[in-house]
Amino acid sequence: MSKQPTKMIIACRSLKPEIDALLTGDRTADEQIAVAYLDQNLHRTPGAMPGILQAAVDDVPDTVSTIVLGYGLCSNGIVGVMAPRQGLVIPRVHDCIALFLGSREAYHTAFQKRAGTYYLTPGWIAEQKDPIGFMENDYVPRLGREEAAWGAKEELKHYSHIIFINTEAVDDPAPLRERARENARFFDKQYEEIQGTRDYFQKLLFGPYDEANFVHIPHGQKVTQKPFLDM
Predict the structure, then answer these.
(1) From residue 224, how far is each of 8, 9, 181, 231 by CA, in Å?
(2) pLDDT tens-digit series, residues 202-223
């Protein structure tokens, strides 16, 4: 008989390659971690996001002792979520790019160096949530190709670079790399690839959940902006 999970990770599907890669290790035999992945596009409708997250949190069995959100502040998309009996543990970041770069400090340094950067990760590309994928799957059916291309390019007009963060979470990153390059060519941006890290993901799954890197929301309290802004 398999053991019941003692820890639940509720995460954006964009984190799936990195989380799944870490969950293949032997350590999970003792950790008993379960993961619930939610749709990647929740951040595009931040007003609806708290309700969807709350439903996922409320769905966690009482036998689970620790609940961790695989989200940052995400355009205030987690604000208002109420912690259940177990409380909530949340990465102390504004968005998920800090997770892929390994720390808030790394993200801040990258932002200071070049604010006009659009980051792509293995999960975003694999799920076709990159700019071309979103244009093809969402804009083109509604607007037609010409208007869809114009709208997508307008959304990215303030970006100068498209950067692929290679976290080495997939066996063959070549197709993902080429897709990132295709985005750069289509939107006339400079392309770069940088090395990511799974250090923050390691903490997300296994801890320790130190105050410097994680926000702890006690039972009955709601998530607010303040812990994420006081950095």
Answers:
(1) 21, 20, 38, 14
(2) 999 999 999 999 999 999 999 9
